[in-house]
Design goal:
Length: about 325
Amino acid sequence: MTEERLSYLFLKYLENTCSQQEMEELFAYIRKAKTDEELRTLIRKVYEEIKLAHPSLTYVDEDGKLVFIEQAGETQTSVNKKPWQGKLVRSLAIAASAVIIAGIIWVINKPAGNSKIAEVKTLTKKFTERKELKYLLLPDSTQVWLNTASSLQFPDEFKSDKREVYLTGEAYFDVKHADKIPFLIHTRNITTTVLGTAFNIKAYAGQKEIMVSVTRGKVKVSRDDKLIAVLTRGKAVRISNATEQVVEREVPVEHIASWQQGNLVYDDAAMEDIVKDLQNVFNAEIRIDDTALSRVSITTSFSRDIGAERALEILGRLTNKKIINQNGVFVIR
C-alpha cells in the first residue's frame, strides 16, 4: 500500500467518484489498520493532508485529537429524485467521506497493539424528512436505503460478535456478509437477524403492522426474543401491532422495496396506512373523515411522479369517496 494509492482512494471518496471496488479496497485498509501500526501511521499522514485540503470536514482540537465536525443528520446527502438509477455507489449523491473519516478517527486514536474492538457507547442517528430518501453506508460496508420520514441509529464501530442497528420507519438493507457476526435490526419489540442478505423492513410508528420482506438470502424475525418467522427470497411476514397476529405470505420480488424505483405498491393494505405513506412521500396533509374507511383494505399502486392529488383521486375511485381540498388539506369523505 503506497501513500499515493491511499491518497487517491480518499480523494475519490471526497469527490464521490469512487467505484464499488475502490470503496471495498479502502475499507479493507482501514480494517487492517486496527492491528497494523505502520498502516495506521500512513493513514494518519494522509488524513492530515486531506484535512488541509478540506478543512470543513475535520480539525485538530487542543489535545491534538482529530475530530469530525459534520452534524449527525447532515453527513449523508439526501436523495429526492430517482436515487435508484445507475450503479448504487455512483448514482447516489453521498457524502461518503463521513463514513471514511469516522473510521480513520477510530483507527488513529486506537491504542497500538490492542486488537479488541472497543465497546460502543454512543449511536449515530440518521433520519429523513417527508419527501426525502437517503443512502447510508454503515461501518461494515452494509448499504441502507432509508425511506421517507424514517430514522436509523447505529454505532461508529460494530462489536466483534454482532452488528446492531435501530430502525423507525422503512428501509431496505443490503447487508455485508460476515460469518458468525449476525446483523440485527431492532424495530420496537421486533428483531430481524441476518448474516448477509437483502431485505426490506417497514415499521412506521402509528401504522397497523410491521412488515419484513426478503429479496435475497435468509432472514430470521423474532418478537421479544422468540422466533416467529424464517423468511427466504420472495417471502414476507406481517406482524399486527394491535393483535400481534403473524401472517407469512409470498411477495413478488419486484414489489419488495419498489419505493426505490419510485413506485408505491400495496397488497391488501389498510387505507389509513396508505394515506400515511402518501403524506410522507408527497409532504401533504390528508385527513380521512370516515373512521370505518380507515380500516378498509386496499390493493393498488402509485408512481411518485403523479403527485398527491392524482394518487388520492385513484383512492377515491376505489372506495367511492370524494376528495376535497380544504385550505391545503386533502379530505377524504
